[in-house]
Amino acid sequence: AQKITQTQPGMFVQEKEAVTLDCTYDTSDPSYGLFWYKQPSSGEMIFLIYQGSYDQQNATEGRYSLNFQKARKSANLVISASQLGDSAMYFCALGGYSTLTFGKGTMLLVSP
Amino acid sequence: GAVVSQHPSWVICKSGTSVKIECRSLDFQATTMFWYRQFPKQSLMLMATSNEGSKATYEQGVEKDKFLINHASLTLSTLTVTSAHPEDSSFYICSARDAVQGAAAVDQPQHFGDGTRLSIL
To answer: Cα–Cα distance between A60 and A10 in angstroms, integer?
Structure first.
């Protein structure tokens, strides 16, 4: 069975500062993927970043980077230079052969 | 690229009505689409996996006769909530994965539609 855990219900950060959103996972699959999605209040799910279990380097996409520590089974999202538009719900997801298992999400609020 | 269109965005209807939600992949082909349900302030819950040309695979606890899924083409899947009641009110969102040849499924992100807010009175 796959399990994904986001322990931070909410996070606050000031504009222009960096913030780390935590995500831990558990799976018995030898190959898997870790994904982060952003969900603004309007509801759409926006794909942010992906990390494959066999990737040697941490994934980066613009201001987003994924701190992947395979031995600890963690895949934390780091947002650098936070912007007001980053305020949203963030979901970590574990991808197996076919489906995604989502964490409960972390609400991020960026203040001026 | 990888745009998924979901329609309608909002539905308000009377109890007992059947509601159809469409999910289209606009610029790629999707042999597999997914339907999720999300309650306020909660995570996405997978309802079913929609496979083109075959029957959908439903998650445990999801009523097949209540939530009819049809995936008639590589770009369209539909979810029909039959005889909807107030407890069916929720946010429904679909996703599709670009079937990139040679790439493992675990490496492909799911691309989501904008969701449908369903309110049954």
So the answer is: 23
Nearest to B90 by CA among B41, B53, B30: B41
Interface membership of A56 toward B (CB under 8 Å): no
Contacts for A67 with CB less than 8 Å, ≥ 6 apart: A20, A58, A74, A75, A76, A77, A78
Question: What is the predicted pLDDT for the residue at B66?
Answer: 96
**Between A50, A53, A103, which is nearest B109 by CB?**
A50
Averaged pLDDT for residues B82-104 = 84
Contact B4, B24 (CB under 8 A): yes
Test A44 with B91 for CB contact under 8 angstroms.
no
pLDDT tens readout for residues A31-69: 899 999 999 999 999 999 999 999 889 999 999 999 999
Distance from CA of B18 to the nearest CA of A (A): 23
pLDDT over threshold 80, residue A90: yes
Partner-chain contact B43 A103, CB within 8 Å = yes
Cross-chain Cβ contact B104/A104 below 8 Å: no
Rounded to a whole number, what is the largest CA-CA distance in chain A?
Answer: 43
List, in sequence order, every residue forming a beta bridge with A38; answer none if it has no partner: A46, A90
Q: Which residue of A has its CA nearest to B114?
A: A44
Tell me the three state secondary structure of residue B60.
coil
Per DSSP, the three-state class of A75 is: strand
Give the CA count within 13 Å in the CB-facing half-sphere of B70. Answer: 7
Write down the pLDDT at residue A38.
97
Q: B97: which strand partners?
A: B110
